[in-house]
Fold this protein.
Amino acid sequence: MYRVEVCLKSQLPDARGLGLVKDIQDLGITSVASVRVIDIYWLDAEATSDELDTICRQLLADPLTQEYRFSRLATDTAPTHSPEANNSAHVVEVAYNPGVTDPVEDTVMKAIDDLGIGGVRAVKTAKRYLIEGRLAKGELETISSRLLVNPIIQHIVERFHFPGNPEYHFQLNEVDISGADIGRQFGFNPAELYAIIGYFQREGRRPTDVELETLAQTWSEHCVHKTFKGRIRLGETTIDNLLKSTIMKATDELAKPWCLSVFNDNAGVIDFDGRWALCFKVETHNHPSAVEPYGGAATGVGGVVRDPLGTGLGAKPILNTDVFCFAPPDLPYERLPR
């Protein structure tokens, strides 16, 4: 197993680190002088020094702005000491949890293969933070939990090893939905739960766990948009189906001829010049973002790109636009999403 460290050259400012210093100050911690960020790559590989040097030089590091080093380590090892870190630096190394997709892994594996280098079985990544400054008890934990680690998908590395592929033996289980708190477990409201119980009573059997998971996913807020489609009461006013009463209603009433396809496919299509059409898609991702704000927003971007590809015979994505949404300006910092 090899460990590769890639960092900015010491004379260059670390933009990621400077941003973290500002974020740390926003937490009320003012004793941090600097932060340096190092990209870590773990390679489960049998490779020569020349091959590793080629991977680092041509793929993992920019020779103009970055420098790299690699070393061979045991298969189960603690993070090594970085030469950039002096004795006063606090070191935090963060990696993805086992089972979480590492978005860089597949790209690096394919790029290594494109270089004509074999023998690399797996790649994992991590980030190493070198935090300079005197920290009071508990402040490093505050910095880590609020800014560096998302515990839903990440963890602080103490000892690293490549996780093996878990053995999975499929077993179909029936679920007793009469006594368990199935509604809370799967997110069903009372009406949905009664409908499910009634259906399987008529079928004369219990549902399987796969069937319940399928219903939970299909009837979820994310897939069905219950809030958008629901009945909203505001004072004495009742809005029946918020989506149809606002956005869809305005579009239908305007009935513009250049609206070629609206609310019919994965994305909307408008005429551009009589020959070309433009495909537009927006994502809310309210529910995923409520569960995990940053990951939910990131996967929303994926949906924005995916849905035009699935519109008609397939549109070609050319750009993303950016939208800024702001919470109340007086919202206390401790209530911001972690």
Observations:
- The mean pLDDT is 86.
- DSSP finds 13 helices and eleven strands in the chain.
- Residues 256-323 form one domain.
- Residues 293-309 form the longest helix (17 residues).
